[in-house]
Design a protein that fits this description.
Layout: E1 8-15, H1 20-30, E2 33-43, E3 48-57, H2 64-75, E4 81-85, E5 91-97, H3 102-112, E6 118-125, H4 131-136, E7 141-143, H5 151-165, E8 169-172, H6 181-186, E9 191-196, H7 207-214, E10 218-225, E11 235-242, H8 249-272, E12 276-279, E13 282-285
Parallel strand pairs: 5-6, 5-8, 6-7, 8-9
Antiparallel strand pairs: 1-3, 1-4, 2-3, 9-10, 10-11, 12-13
C-alpha cells in the first residue's frame, strides 16, 4: 500500500473542462518532471474532474515553491484546486480509541514498520485501558473520561490535543463515542471512522451475535469520513469476509476484527497518499 519513496505527488480537482489532463502533463514536461503514475476521473454527474500524478524531477535543483507558484498561474484558468506533496511527507495524526485494541494495534504496527507514512502525535481515549500499548510505542496517551454532562468539556480537551499536536488527520480506531455536530464540523474532511458493515440491520450491543442469529453469510467493515450523520459519512473503503453456518458468534467477531483492521489501514493509506478526494457527500478514490 506504499508509494514510491522518491516521488512527489500532485493532486488537483476542478470543474470539468477541455484540457484538464493536458494542463498537468504539459506543465510537468516543461518543468522536466517524469511521470511515474497518473490517474484521473471525470464525474459527468457532478461535472467535476479529479487527477493524481506521481512524478520525480529530473533536475537536482527542483524548487517546490517556484513549482507551485508557476502551476497556480496555469491552473487558475481551470479553477483548479491543487496540492503538492513532498516524497518524505509524513502526515501528523491523532488516534482516538476506547477499549478495543485491534485497530490501534494494527495501525501502530504499520506505523512502526513504515508501511504508513504517518507521524502519530498522540493517542486519545475515554478509557485508560490502552495506555500501556501506546506507552510501549513511546506515544503520549491522553485519558479523557466522558459522561453526558461532560461531553462538551471532554471534546474541548480533545480538540486542544489535536491543535497542539498539529494533527492533520484524526483516526477513530473504534472510538465508541458519538462526536458532537460542532466537533464533526471542525474535523470535516480530516477524520476517518471505522465500523462494522452490519449496519443498519444490527444496531446496538453485540451486532455479530445478532448477525449469527440471522444466519448472515458475510461480515464486513466500512471506513468513511465523519460527518453529522452517524456512520453515514462519505465512504473511503469497505471490506467483506465470507462466513458460514460453521462460524459461531466468536468466529464472526474475530473475522470482523480482521476486516476492520485492514479496511481502516487502507482508508488511512489512501488519505495520506492523497488518493482520496472528497467532493460533497461522495469520494473519488484512486486505488493502487
Amino acid at each position: 500500500m506504499s508509494r514510491n519513496a522518491d516521488t512527489w505527488i500532485l493532486t488537483a480537482q476542478c470543474p470539468s473542462r477541455l484540457g484538464t489532463v493536458d494542463v498537468v502533463t504539459r506543465f510537468l514536461k516543461e518543468r522536466r518532471c517524469y511521470i511515474t503514475e497518473q490517474q484521473s476521473f471525470d464525474d459527468r454527474h457532478a461535472e467535476r474532474f479529479f487527477i493524481r500524478t506521481e512524478f520525480y524531477p529530473q533536475d537536482a535543483d527542483f524548487d517546490a515553491e517556484a513549482f507551485q507558484a508557476a502551476f497556480a498561474a496555469r491552473a487558475g484558468e481551470f479553477e483548479m484546486v491543487f496540492e503538492l506533496t513532498a516524497p518524505d511527507a509524513r502526515m501528523p495524526v491523532v488516534i482516538m480509541v476506547s477499549k478495543a485494541d485491534h485497530c490501534l494495534n494494527d495501525l501502530l504496527y504499520r506505523y512502526r514498520t513504515g508501511q504508513l507514512p504517518i507521524d502519530i502525535r498522540a493517542v486519545v481515549s475515554n478509557h485508560p485501558d490502552l495506555e500501556a500499548l501506546a506507552s510501549w510505542h513511546g506515544l503520549p496517551y491522553y485519558h479523557f473520561p466522558i459522561t453526558a454532562d461532560t461531553k462538551a468539556e471532554q471534546e474541548a480537551r480533545v480538540w486542544s490535543v489535536i491543535e497542539e499536536t498539529g494533527a492533520e488527520l484524526v483516526i477513530l480506531a473504534r472510538y465508541m463515542q458519538v462526536l458532537s455536530s460542532g466537533m464533526c464540523e471542525k474535523l470535516a474532511g480530516r477524520a476517518i471512522n471505522i465500523h462494522h458493515s452490519l449496519l443498519p440491520g444490527f444496531k446496538g450491543a453485540k451486532p455479530y451475535h445478532q448477525a449469527y442469529e440471522k444466519g448472515v453469510k458475510l461480515v464486513g467493515a466500512t471506513a468513511h469520513y465523519i460527518n453529522d450523520d452517524l456512520d453515514e459519512g462519505p465512504i473511503i473503503t469497505q471490506g467483506v469476509e465470507p462466513v458460514s453456518h460453521a462460524d459461531y458468534p466468536e468466529d464472526l467477531v474475530a473475522k470482523g476484527r480482521d476486516v476492520e483492521c485492514l479496511t481502516l489501514a487502507r482508508a488511512v493509506a489512501y488519505h495520506v497518499e492523497r488518493r482520496a478526494f472528497l467532493h460533497k457527500r461522495r469520494t473519488v478514490v484512486f486505488t493502487r
